[in-house]
Amino acid sequence: MTSNHLLLYRIAELMLEQEQHILPVDLLFDDDQIGDFVKSIQIDSPYQQMLFEGVLTESVRDEKLFVSFTVEGYFHYVLGEVIFNKSQEFGAEALKQIVEENKLNGAKEGVEQCLIKDIKKQKYERLFSLIDSGGEMNKYCSVPFSYALVYANNNQSQIGKTENKVSIEYLVDSLLDNPTENDFRVLFNSILNLERTQKNNCLLNLFNILTKIEKYENIDFLKIIIKGLPYLEQELKSEILNRLQNEVDKFSDHSDYPEIIFELGTKWLLSLDFKMAVGMFEKSKLIFESKEGNFDDKIEKIYSNLGAAFWYQGDIKLTKYYFELSFEKCIQIYGYHHPYTSGALQNLALVNVLLDEYEKSIEIFNKALDISLKNEGLNHPNSARIYSNIGSAYLRLGKLEIANEFFQKALTIDLNVLHSFHPNLALDYDDIGDILLEQGDKQDACLHYEKSKTIFIKNYGINYPHVKVLEEKIQKLLES
Fold this sequence. Notes:
Structural class: mainly alpha
Number of strands: 3
Largest sheet: 3 strands, antiparallel
Number of helices: 25
């Protein structure tokens, strides 16, 4: 252990013992392990170096000097190492005791990091035991379990070649052997973590394993499988979607039933079965309207998706009707300056594009952009999509240079914040291909259309309508 590591480790250890995330420097002076480091005023001493690099921060309170970690995440990491070393000979109860009793700010996150260190050692007993204990502990098991899935996925190629390598299948089987609500909750939240960190290859392998498990008698399992449908190949996706449709009505008395019906409608919409999608949305709406309580937020989403379903069918009148209802609900629920209201405005602007009212659509898109920039900032996928939509309107007006500026802005943002096969990038490449085609650069346009097509197929399959459009564009270019 280097001097710097020893210093940080010992400070974290003292914080755990004192149950304080900020310590008086006088306490460190008297410590046998790091006292000499803290007393030294030499610029290259470990303590002074950590202050200089911003890892530690000193502050004065009541005329006393205190020290704390500057970066919270780094503190959690070091604390996790301390907890791991102190507790590895003990079972899950030792970690549970820290979560429930230790008053140190960050102790719970330290336990999270400790469990990750368990996983790196191929030790899963404490993690599964804490999952089974339920309650608050489940909150601190989801990140470690998602880490375990990624770790197993990365080692997948070595399964059978290297001893003690754990597979995703083993983790899923272990978790869902006689499953409880706790197991499904941790699995669902782990999936959310994997989506947030864009671990798409891991999610693909995970959901292909989950579809082979027969747990359809459990509504929590149904929710997980519905969430995983976009990661499946088209043939398997259709098979599973039909299976879910046949299974769902057995849960008609469950409070989550209308939400699940809505989610199934969304998946039918993405699968281009608009009749099934509209049926599910309307069924979900009727159930929400019949229930006690305020479900305006759910109704707004249903209106928005109904508008999308009729958009795909080319019914402008019904598209406009439902998008306007969605916007009115957003104003009622969230107010004007909310990201959801920005989304509803974008839908209204798209209706104007369909009506060839491009100047009006640009005006509405700019209102949506103003809301998005204030709420989410420039480097956000929502801002990128609005730039793309404004570019499309300018393209239809024949203003190529302005359109290209907006398309390039969208692409730059998406490349910074999304994974390389995100469908938004497919839209960006298609847009820029259109500009290149208008400028007479057929070869480069074709390359952009091919990029777009590859991404759409990877996400939605060969029968996705946009794939057909791109194939026609490419074919015309090859024939010209």
